[in-house]
């Protein structure tokens, strides 16, 4: 049984036996992707970094036959969701800021009750 588990955890590529371990970048992209959703204010930065790391990790997984593809895809999805959430919040904030600023700076005519 131990030999069977060992065979499942290795990858045979181009005549060389490699140990299949998850790429560290895919784990980091998942962590940053989750942080991009739950952390306020800097979530957009975490999301961008998670997207970049997961793209690099997916490329390395394809070329080196390593594991961690699911982690990288989950990090990519979480990074995209976190980035979209905070981008929409920033756009909504800017829209509200400009909309309410236009209302406040409108031409208001003040009538005086003092006729003197």
What are the main properties of this structure?
mainly alpha; 4 helices; two-stranded antiparallel sheet; 116 residues; disordered N terminus
End-to-end span in angstroms?
104 Å
What's the arrangement of strands in the largest beta sheet?
1-2
Strand content: 5-15%
Number of strands: 2
Counting DSSP H or I runs of 4 or more residues, the number of helices is 4
Characterize the biggest β-sheet. Answer: 2 strands, antiparallel
Tell me, briefly, the overall form: rod-shaped
**Are there runs of 5+ residues with pLDDT below 50, and where?**
1-9
Judged by helices, strands and strand pairing, the structural class is mainly alpha
N-to-C series of helices and strands = HEEHHH
Q: Helicity range of the residues? A: 55-70%
Taking Cα atoms only, what radius of gyration do you get, to the nearest Å? 26 Å
Mean pLDDT across the residues is 81
Care to describe what's here?
This protein has 116 residues and is mainly alpha-helical. It has four helices and two strands. A two-stranded antiparallel ribbon has the order 1-2. A hairpin with a 2-residue loop joins β1 (10-13) and β2. It is rod-shaped. 25% of the residues are buried.
Structure in a nutshell:
This protein is mainly alpha-helical. It is built from four helices and two strands; from the N terminus they run αββααα.
Can you lay out the helices and strands and say which pair or pack?
Layout: H1 2-8, E1 10-13, E2 16-19, H2 24-38, H3 43-64, H4 69-104
Antiparallel strand pairs: 1-2
Helix pairs in contact: 2-3, 2-4, 3-4
């Amino acid at each position: 049984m131990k030999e069977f588990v060992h065979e499942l955890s290795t990858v045979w590529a181009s005549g060389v036996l490699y140990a299949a371990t998850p790429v560290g970048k895919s784990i980091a992209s998942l962590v940053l992707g989750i942080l991009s959703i739950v952390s306020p204010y800097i979530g957009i930065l975490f999301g961008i970094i998670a997207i970049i790391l997961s793209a690099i990790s997916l490329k390395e997984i394809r070329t080196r036959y390593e594991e961690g593809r699911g982690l990288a895809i989950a990090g990519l999805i979480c990074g995209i969701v976190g980035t979209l959430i905070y981008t929409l919040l920033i756009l909504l904030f800017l829209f509200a800021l400009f909309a309410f600023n236009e209302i406040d700076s409108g031409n208001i005519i003040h009538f005086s009750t003092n006729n003197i």
